[in-house]
Amino acid sequence: MKKLANKVAVITGASKGIGAGIAKSLAAEGASVVVNYSSAKDGADKVVAEIVSNGGKAIAVQANVSKTADVTRLFEETTKAYGAVDILVNNAGVYKFGAIDQITEEDFHSQFDTNVLGLLLTTQGALKSFNENGGSVINIGSVVSSIAPIGSSIYTATKGAVDAITHVLSKELGPKKIRVNSINPGMVETEGTHTAGFIGSDFQTETERTAPLGRIGQPEDIALVAVFLASEDSRWLTGETLLAGGGVR
User: Using an 8 Å Cβ cutoff, are 183 and 244 in contact?
Assistant: First the structure.
């Protein structure tokens, strides 16, 4: 039997990149998947189509995770389609690097609203949709909270908050049989890192030079860790932040 047979998973920000990879991998292990997106409907529909063509179950649901009303609708549509939720992957995130003298209020609020407030609101929403058997919340942090790269003050602060929230909620939700863990990826090749100019840059070269495994990550590398944290294989883990950066720390 597949590891996630009869499970229901909501993955935020799953229209591309790491989120899309996680959605496909959870579905391949038998989960019914909700592919959440904020604006990239075409990308979300493409992920759903690929999952369905491979024999899986998936729907796409639009929601801005930083808006309470949207989050409420996300879980209403999830339970209507599939029933109670078993797995929440808080993947939706944005980033913008810049030196301290370039930071604006808009930069701060856009990153904290999605990366931190969004995570809190979706976890809050999922609590109403989990059943008495509990479930697994998987937060997507970042290795930046450990390595603190120059020019990443806001983004690193948001991911440091994800680490802290993971620890707090693991204690708070443990009595409800809900496990809360974080995957902290290093540099991963996605549409976003291509658009941001990281792929092919000196930053990529330096990352590959210093990474013990000698390369940057691919979405599947992170997705495999997510499958582990979503399944019974990790039933004794909660409050953990798993660095997934090829040894970069």
Answer: yes
Please list, in sequence order, all residues whose beta carbon lies within 8 angstroms of the beta carbon of residue 161, skipping any fewer than 6 positions away: 112, 115, 116
Q: Are strands 87-90 and 135-140 parallel, antiparallel or unpaired?
A: parallel
Helix (H, G, I), strand (E, B) or coil at 194: helix
Quote the tokens at residue 227.
């499958």
**Which of these is catalytic: 37, 82, 95, 155?**
155
Q: How many CA atoms lie within 13 A of 165 on its CB side?
A: 25
Exposure b/e, 141-162, CB count within 10 A at least 16 = b? bbbbbbbeeeebbbbbbbbbbb
* Residue 155 annotated among the catalytic residues of the structure: yes
For residue range 52-94, list pLDDT tens digits in order.
999 999 999 999 999 999 999 999 999 999 999 999 999 999 9
pTM of this structure: 0.97
